[in-house]
Design goal:
Elements: H1 12-25, E1 37-42, H2 46-49, H3 59-77, E2 82-87, E3 135-138, H4 149-155, E4 160-166, H5 168-181, E5 185-194, H6 201-211, E6 214-216, H7 218-224
Parallel strand pairs: 1-2, 1-4, 2-3, 4-5, 5-6
């Protein structure tokens, strides 16, 4: 198809088709070395996963926890590090974007006391970390923002991260973007990231395909590893 293009003569239809193909079928051409991989389990904590507990509950994350448990088990068996993040109380809340409190996603219309949540946050019990696994407390969406995650991955000798967890279009995708910007290879688990609004998940996967990550299912990831 590319021999139809001429420099300086791209039609609107051609450039739209290029973008469409990348969104729908994009697949980075880098290879995956299991020895260079680390699994990131993003924010699979009670506030998001425990049914009916908070307005931040993501039912899709609860339903995907068994699949995330499978990839955790597989990585542990094959000596691939599992690194957890949790959104938690850090530095008296002075280390996070000041505009966060103004965002509609804080659900200020819900009239309950949220002050006791996100204090001593715990990973959902079904996928709890082992004592020797790293758990990073983060203060915003992305796992790399003001955390030691990049240093930890480099010290481990890893150049590839596998993204799982919640929320698919926020913390998971932000971590994927930040990893890309730091020259890590990124695998985004298409059925391993819980969406708070599932109808939007495929659109987020399209963005990942075009510009940030290999989008792969649990079975595809296990096959590669």
């Amino acid at each position: 198809m590319f021999n139809k293009y001429e420099e300086g003569k791209f039609t609107e239809q051609q450039v739209l088709q290029l973008a469409k193909n990348a969104y729908q079928h994009g697949d980075p051409d880098y290879t995956i070395n299991p020895e260079k991989c680390a699994l990131l389990v993003i924010d699979m904590q009670n506030e998001f996963v425990k049914p009916h507990w908070t307005p931040d509950w993501v039912p899709d994350a609860t339903s995907k926890a068994p699949k995330i448990k499978q990839i955790i088990k597989h990585c542990r068996k094959n000596n691939i590090p599992v690194i957890y993040t949790i959104y938690s109380d850090t530095h008296q809340y002075q280390d996070r974007p000041k505009t966060g409190k103004h965002m509609p996603g804080r659900y200020t219309e819900v009239n309950i006391d949220m002050s006791h949540f996100y204090k001593n946050s715990e990973v959902w019990h079904e996928i709890a970390p082992k004592p020797d696994e790293v758990v990073i407390k983060k203060c915003s969406y992305g796992g790399f923002y003001d955390t030691p995650l990049e240093t930890i991955l480099k010290n481990m000798g890893k150049d590839t991260v596998i993204i799982t967890g919640v929320i698919a279009s926020y913390c998971c995708s932000m971590t994927a973007r930040q990893a890309y910007e730091r020259s890590f290879k990124v695998i985004y688990g298409s059925d391993l990231c819980g969406a708070d609004y599932p109808e939007l998940l495929e659109y987020e996967l399209m963005v990942m395909r075009k510009g940030f990550a290999k989008v792969m299912s649990l079975d595809e990831i296990i096959a590669v590893l």
